[in-house]
Structure formats: C-alpha cells, structure tokens
Amino acid sequence: MLDSLLRDPVPFWDEFYRDRNKKIPFFHNVPDENLVEYFDNGRLGPGRVLELGCGPGRNAIYLAQKGCEVDAVDLSEEALDWGKERALKKNLAIHFIHQNIFDLDIEDGSYDFIYDSGCFHHLAPHRRLTYVELVNRALKPGGHFAVTCFVMGGSLGGSEISDWEVYRARSVMGGLGYTEEKLKTIFRSFTAVEVRRMKVMGAGSPTFGVPDLWTALFKKNSK
C-alpha cells in the first residue's frame, strides 16, 4: 500500500539512463573513490559481491577487475544494457540481474561484501527495515556492507523532509538526505568501520568523488 503512494521507479530510471550523453557525473565509467580505498588499504579483498542498484556498472566493473565474483542488480533495463556493454568491452564476467532488490531470492550468508552507491537514498522510509534485513541475511558472518548516500541538505541532493512528509508529498524529493548519526542508527545491527564524507575528485580522475555524499563501511558480527 505504501509503495503505491509513490511513483513507479522503473519508467523514471529507464528514461534517466536512455540518454547516455547527459552531463551526469556518475555516468563516467570510474569507480567510487571510497570503494577503491577499501581495497587499497586492505579492508576488502576478492570475494563474492552483491551490488544493489548498480546502474551502468562502473563499480561492478571495478570489483570484477579486483578478482571479485559480482552479482549486480538494478531495476532499469537501460542501465543494465549499458553495464553489459561496458563489461563486454573489458572482457569481464559480471552477473547483471534485472530485478527489484526486494524481490531477490538470496541464499542466507551468500556474500562477503555488499555495496550500494546511490540506491539507499531513493528508498522510502517504510523500506528501510526490509533493506537492513536484506543486507543482514545476504552477508556472511564477518562480511562487510558499504553505502554511499546523500548528506542531508547537500548541494547535489539530500532532501531534509521528514518521513511523514514523504507520504504527504508522495515523493522522496529526488533522494532523502542523511546524517552520520541517522546512518549509524539505521545500521546499528552492524559495526561501523568508517563513516566519512566522500572525497571530491577532479575532472579526469580515475575515481569518482563529488561533494555532499556520505561513504559508510559496516561489518557484520562474526557470530
């Protein structure tokens, strides 16, 4: 019932990704700077990975290049077609899945790492508990989860409306903004390894980094 109060996301995102020449920062085929740092500093290594809301595959491609077995999920067929083309050009094997993340059939404890770059902040408030349950169920004990999302009131997005106002307006207003405290509260069943602002990377950088995004890395309890 609550889902029905908000727009159907599939037509919006298919149209969003249809024009690949738009001046959208994350259309560039480079990985998030925080993701690269997790591998460079040894916090993450090769393993089985699930990416939630993968878009045209820029982070999935990086993960595959690092030796990971990658399942990349998105509800936009346009985005996945683009991602498949990119992976093919690099001769990378990535399992792209066209599905709503909440409809995934996942075996418990299947993944070493789950990554979300820009999906979580588009979810309505009533979906947060289901999202946390999905991540917790899919992760192996001791596995990691990382999310990149809007800072509340940020320059690129990050609506400051209350949860109640989402349903009154029937919109997340382009994406909900979060504070560090709220992220730690939502994901309190995990151990926070690092929560910081994304580093801003200049034009032509081999990694993606823009202002006013949170990058947060969490770890599931080993028991």
UniProtKB/TrEMBL annotation:
Q: Which UniProt keywords apply?
A: Methyltransferase, Transferase
CDD domains this protein is in? Answer: AdoMet_MTases
GO terms assigned for molecular function: methyltransferase activity
Source taxon at top rank = Bacteria
GO biological processes: methylation
Domain Methyltransferase: residue ranges? 49-143
Q: Does the keyword Transferase apply?
A: yes
**Matching Pfam families:** Methyltransf_25
Protein name per Swiss-Prot or TrEMBL: Class I SAM-dependent methyltransferase
Q: What is the species of this protein?
A: Fictibacillus marinisediminis
